[in-house]
Specification:
CATH class: Alpha Beta
CATH architecture: Alpha-Beta Barrel
Distance between the termini: 14 Å
Largest sheet: 6 strands, parallel
Shape: globular
Number of strands: 12
Number of domains: 1
Length: 247
């Protein structure tokens, strides 16, 4: 990375179910001249929005990929999985609204879904898929093990970005993002975003994740774009893959 300061920018929950909101977010990025970031794509959101049935949406993603946007796999359906240990259920309760798809899944099932999802995303959008990010950044032992067997070069959690296939951490810094849900939860998230901006000002890497809910009202969109402006000041917007060592 040299002396360059980076803003690792990502757009989560990329599915035709949220296409209008996603287009608003992308327009906001384009208005700021930002064309290098990661989009985290869900192949079949909640089992009702398969990419294969939404060719116009896939063509839009293909165009963005051609312009330099990185496409990563973001689960399969972005829904929760049953069962799990008490600790896993607590994590799901604290950090997600029933979306911890890979939290309590075994390694074999995780690997099968990862490989299927990568194939579907690659075929529908026509892009290389080098990375996987679990919904809500929630991984269990099974999904962590499956990542390496699937050969993914990139993955991220709330606290770090790493390369499963290389077996190394690429950066260790928390992600800044607004939370969906009620006023209290979003208010606390706003404080977290501001704190990250202040505490990480000298960090070579800052991470910021946008979600469709950030464009659900004019007020939320303004807050998200204002945070983006603050966090991107003096930094080069980047995709996760930009952290990988040169081949």
């Amino acid at each position: 990375m040299g002396g360059m300061k980076r803003l690792l920018l990502s757009v989560h929950d990329v599915t035709p179910a949220y296409e209008p909101l996603l287009r608003v977010l992308v327009e906001g990025l384009e208005d700021r001249g930002l064309s290098r970031y990661s989009m985290l794509v869900v192949p079949d959101h909640r089992g009702s929005w398969p990419l294969e049935e939404h060719s116009g949406f896939c063509r839009w993603l293909s165009g963005l990929a051609a312009e330099g946007v990185e496409m990563l796999l973001h689960g399969m359906t972005h829904t929760g999985s049953p069962g799990g240990t008490p600790a896993e259920r607590l994590r799901a309760l604290l950090f997600t609204r029933g979306e911890g798809e890979f939290l309590s899944m075994g390694e074999g099932e995780s690997l099968a879904l990862m490989e299927n999802g990568r194939r579907r995303l690659s075929e529908t959008v026509g892009c290389e898929v080098r990375g996987f990010v679990a919904p809500a950044w929630l991984y269990g032992r099974g999904s962590i093990g499956a990542l390496k067997h699937a050969g993914f070069l990139l993955a991220e959690s709330r606290w770090r970005v790493w390369s499963p296939s290389l077996g190394r951490t690429l950066t260790r810094v928390p992600v800044c993002n607004y939370a969906g849900g009620g006023v209290l939860r979003r208010g606390l998230a706003a404080l977290w975003v501001r704190a990250c901006g202040a505490v990480l000002r000298a960090s070579p890497v800052v991470r910021f994740a946008l979600h469709p809910d950030d464009a659900s009202t004019p007020r939320r969109l303004d807050a998200a774009m204002s945070a983006l402006d603050r966090l991107s000041h003096g930094r080069s917007a980047s995709a996760l893959g930009d952290l990988l060592p040169a081949p």
